[in-house]
């Protein structure tokens, strides 16, 4: 059985229904291969892919690969616009801050601070594509308390200032709407 989220109730249900391989995504190709080999071995009486492992396939336990920092991801998604303390997020994951920092860096390839900044900037980019928004309000909306710091970070990550990004994308969005409006009112035929 392959599932996206682990829960004790689901695991108990699976075992009661004689589902011996309970896998949680994401899983490694090795875990998937082992599961398939175990299933085939059970089906064909242990003949398939037989190894020198004395433990019967249905009693073997394979480590489930799951992100220990998943609560941090969910927290950032739901609270990115608020002030976020790494210590608090580490507690949500059941870890001390230094342990959390190492685990987060290992799982995401970046620090928690950098992840949070990039997440906020991605949300800012979404908002800046909308022509009706005011650039000066975006910094506060996505969790920055200082607009000049927001501008510096945005320019460092995106390569242009928030104002320039907004001008480019709002202009493109406006042109798209004008084309749709013109095509809609001219019956879809271009003017000749």
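Q: What amino acid sequence fits the structure above?
A:
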């Amino acid at each position: 059985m392959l599932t996206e989220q682990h829960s004790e109730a689901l695991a108990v249900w699976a075992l009661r229904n004689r589902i011996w391989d309970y896998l949680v995504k994401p899983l490694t190709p090795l875990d998937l291969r082992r599961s398939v080999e175990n299933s085939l071995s059970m089906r064909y009486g242990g003949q398939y892919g037989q190894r020198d492992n004395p433990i019967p396939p249905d009693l073997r336990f394979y480590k489930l690969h799951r992100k220990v920092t998943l609560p941090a991801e969910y927290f950032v998604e739901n609270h990115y616009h608020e002030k976020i303390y790494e210590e608090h997020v580490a507690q949500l994951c059941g870890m001390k801050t230094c342990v959390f920092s190492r685990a987060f860096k290992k799982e995401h390839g970046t620090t928690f601070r950098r992840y949070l900044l990039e997440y906020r900037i991605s949300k800012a980019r979404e908002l800046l594509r909308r022509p009706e928004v005011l650039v000066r309000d975006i910094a506060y909306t996505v969790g920055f308390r200082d607009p000049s710091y927001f501008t510096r970070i945005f320019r460092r990550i995106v390569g242009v200032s928030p104002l320039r990004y907004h001008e480019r994308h709002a202009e493109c969005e406006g042109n798209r709407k004008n084309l749709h409006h013109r095509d809609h009112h001219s019956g879809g035929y271009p003017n000749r």
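Q: And what stands out in the fold?
A: Residues 3 and 138 are 37 Å apart (CA to CA).
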